[in-house]
Design brief:
The complex is a heterodimer. In chain A, the strands form 2 sheets. A 5-stranded mixed beta sheet of chain A has the order 5-6-7-9-8, covered by helices on one side. Chain A has a 4-stranded antiparallel beta sheet with strand order 2-1-4-3, covered by helices on one side. Chain A has 3 domains: 3-260; 277-377, no CATH class; 464-582, Histidine kinase-like ATPase, C-terminal domain (Heat Shock Protein 90). In chain A, 64% of the residues lie in helices and 10% in strands. By secondary structure, chain A is α+β, with helices and mostly antiparallel strands. Chain B contains 5 helices and 5 strands. Chain B is an alpha/beta fold. The model of chain B has no long low-confidence stretch (mean pLDDT 89). In chain B, α2 runs parallel beside α3. The longest helix of chain B is centred in the N-terminal third of the chain and has 13 residues, at 17-29. Classes of the chains: A alpha+beta, B alpha/beta. Chains A and B meet through α14 of A and α1 of B.
């Protein structure tokens, strides 16, 4: 038996003992007219609060609501000391009498999670405790009259006999109490208004009972404030007493109501799913109905992109674990994620319920997941298709620019030089010869630039001889030694060879420009249906793949083939570029 | 060349140094006086104001401003020099832009000669 359980059992035993004391006090009381009713109803109310409080405490040890409910029971028993014939005990009972009202207000405002959520609630209770324990204290010390009902003992705490002064404190205390009760009613209304539907269902019986209780108490206090009856020394009205007695049972009813209705709703959900293979929006609706949460949303696990997407395949972000209003329950099927149910955090009170509903709908969710994944895939393909077109256009622009700035300019210069040489040929043959020498250099440069450009479009050696000779040619042109460690035997599909070639070409170009490397190595391997291309150098590292348009364009080209590009470039260690290209 | 006074002062504007030097050699050999070179549009406008050339040989594709805009700005002032546009592209690539820019005409770079220039600025 856990120590908490033992302590709670002891606490309940103490409440039983206090109930027995209360019965004894009532039966022997000289000033109790309705002995039988009070001796029955009094302990019943106290034990109801203590019993349900201890039960709630044991179920949810971290929720203070159970403790508050138990405290109300004990405060009720303390108020029962006002049945005693001994003046000192009687006075103590009368003094502590209003405390349980404040504790009830505390319990109602903290319902159902045991926390006071608003500053208004905290302020109300602070004033309430102050009023109950301190504002009315001078009433007793100044010799306030507590001899109503008839035959009740005298005030045993009177230090001076000044009943008129005492009356002032009593009136202030009653006025504050009346204001607080009205404020409590307003706050309970607000609490209901801002609650989500699942929360409302659990809260309804307690909140409505609480509202009726505060109404009855308000009537009683106002009546006593303007009448002659002494509130402190008299018992609450019968209506408020009955409502008060109903409070713990309203709590139990709320609990059972939500549990049974939810269990039934999950049963309905299974039936609905079996009757008609529902999907899409109606699957969400069915789960929303079953769990009583209109805000419920579904997210589906996309195995392709390894993230959650909505029913239209668009990526979605799940609420963070720290969210107090929203919660996520992930549903798995055969240990593989299927979907996530995003729901009101109030449903976390019964985590098994959402899981049960999710499990009941797992097959339908799996179907829905497949459809969402398909849509996500289509969306991805649309994006990558657009990117491929964009990359193609950018390459054409770059090609035009290179032709214009390079070979075309050299040919223009060549044309001018030839014209100039022609004019000098007869008058000044030496100058004409020098001009023609310059023209040859210009022509050689133009040819080299055209060759480079043609290789950039598509290297002929790759088409004719395959990847290995093409990579060897690339390596031979690199400014630092490049070792080709491995290239698979035989040909791969031409799009794969082309992308692999350009990954190596771009990486070696970047290495030459930025890496300050002494050597590099290139490996192309076939692994599990992929061609893996790896280029490693011993340069300065720190390469940012998002910064250069070359690598970004390559990543887009790879994406069009369902491939991925990774760049690992720690500072001072070197750079490794790795591309994985699907290659059946 | 024979009909043009040798003192025609020319400013060459092009971002390619090879073209500038070859054009200078060509024009000087044909009796033109190349008084300056500029690699971009803004420095061309500044040089045209400072050097007061008779003729600006202006490339269409410059790194900063468009050659047509540069031509329009140079020719907008009173006593402005004649502007002749040039490019390694063909004039048909530009449609009516050459005429609208205020330039006297267009010569493809490969066909540049003193005679062609004289023909346009006569």
């Amino acid at each position: 038996m856990s120590s908490l359980r033992a302590a709670l059992i002891a606490l309940f035993a103490a409440s039983v003992a206090m109930a027995a004391v209360m019965v004894a006090l009532v039966v022997s009381s000289d000033h109790e007219d309705a002995r039988t009713l009070t001796a029955t109803l009094g302990p019943f109310i106290g034990l109801s609060f203590c019993g349900t409080g201890v039960f709630a405490w044991s179920r949810r040890p971290h929720n203070r609501f159970g403790a508050l409910m138990t405290a109300v029971g004990f405060a009720w028993f303390l108020a029962g000391l006002a049945e005693a014939n001994d003046p000192w005990v009687y006075t103590l009972g009368v003094y502590l009498g209003p405390l349980y009202f404040v504790l009830v207000a505390h319990m109602l405002l903290a319902f159902p999670n045991g926390r006071l959520e608003t500053t208004a609630a905290r302020t109300l209770l602070a004033i309430g405790y102050l009023d109950a324990l301190f504002v009315q204290l001078p009433f007793f010390l100044l010799g306030g009259d507590i001899t109503d009902p008839t035959n009740a003992p005298e005030n045993a705490w009177a230090l001076v006999d000044s009943p008129d002064s005492a009356q002032v404190f009593q009136s202030v205390s009653q006025l504050v109490a009346a204001t607080l009760i009205a404020w409590l009613a307003v706050q309970l209304f607000q609490k209901r208004r801002i609650a989500s539907p699942p929360q409302r269902r659990v809260m309804a019986p307690v909140l409505w009972t609480g509202l009726v209780l505060s109404g009855a108490l308000a009537v009683a206090v106002v009546g006593q404030l303007f009448g002659s009856t002494n509130l402190i020394a008299t018992s609450p009205s019968l209506v408020s007493l009955i409502t008060f007695a109903a409070l713990p049972w309203a709590f139990v009813i709320g609990l059972l109501r939500s549990r049974y209705s939810r269990a039934g709703a999950v049963g309905d959900l299974v039936e609905r799913l079996n009757a008609q293979g529902i999907e899409g929006e109606s699957l969400r609706d069915a789960l929303s109905d079953a769990l009583g949460d209109r805000s419920l949303a579904l997210a589906f696990w996309s195995r392709g992109s390894e993230r959650y997407v909505d029913a239209h395949g668009q990526p979605v972000d799940l609420p963070p674990a720290t969210s107090r209003s929203r919660a996520v329950t992930e549903i798995e099927r055969e240990a593989v994620p299927v979907a996530a149910i995003v729901h009101d955090a109030a449903l976390l009170d019964e985590p098994g319920l959402v899981r049960a509903a999710g499990a009941a709908a797992a097959l339908a969710l799996e179907n829905e997941r497949l459809e969402a994944e398909l849509k996500a895939r289509v969306a991805e393909l649309q994006v990558s298709r657009a990117k491929v077109i964009e990359v193609g256009m950018a390459e054409r622009r770059a090609l035009e620019r290179n032709l214009h700035d390079g070979a075309q300019q050299r040919l223009v210069a060549l044309s001018l030089q030839l014209g100039l040489a022609k004019t000098k040929l007869r008058d000044d043959p030496d100058v004409a010869e020098r001009i023609l020498d310059g023209a040859r250099v210009e022509l050689a440069s133009a040819l080299e630039e055209l060759r480079e450009l043609a290789r950039g479009i598509h290297p002929a050696i790759l088409t004719d001889r395959g990847l290995a000779p093409a990579l060897e040619a690339l390596a031979s042109r690199a400014p630092v030694p490049v070792e080709i460690d491995a290239v698979p035997d035989g040909r791969m599909p031409s799009p794969v060879e082309a992308v692999a070639y350009f990954v190596v070409a771009e990486s070696l170009t970047n290495m030459a420009k930025y890496a300050d490397a002494e050597y590099a190595s290139v490996r192309v391997l076939r692994e599990n249906g992929y061609a893996v291309v790896e280029i490693e150098d011993n340069g300065i590292g720190g390469a940012d793949p998002s910064a250069g348009s070359g690598l970004r364009g390559l990543a887009d080209r790879l994406a069009a083939l369902d491939g991925r590009l990774e760049v690992d470039s720690p500072l001072g260690v070197g750079t490794t570029v790795r591309a994985r290209i699907p290659c059946a | 060349m024979v009909n043009e006074p040798v003192s025609t002062k020319v400013l060459i504007v092009d971002d390619h140094p090879t073209f500038r030097s070859t054009a200078r050699l060509l024009l000087e050999s044909e009796g033109f006086d190349v008084i300056g070179e500029a690699p971009d549009g803004l420095s061309a406008i500044a040089a045209a104001g400072e050097l007061h050339p008779d003729l600006v040989l202006l490339d269409v594709n410059l790194p900063d401003l468009d050659g047509f805009d540069v031509a329009a700005r140079i020719t907008s002032v009173l006593g402005a020099p004649a502007v002749v546009l040039t490019s390694s592209r063909d004039s048909s690539d530009f449609g009516p832009l050459v005429h609208r820019s205020g330039a006297r005409g267009f010569i493809p770079k490969g066909e540049l000669s003193g005679a062609a220039l004289t023909e346009l600025i006569r």
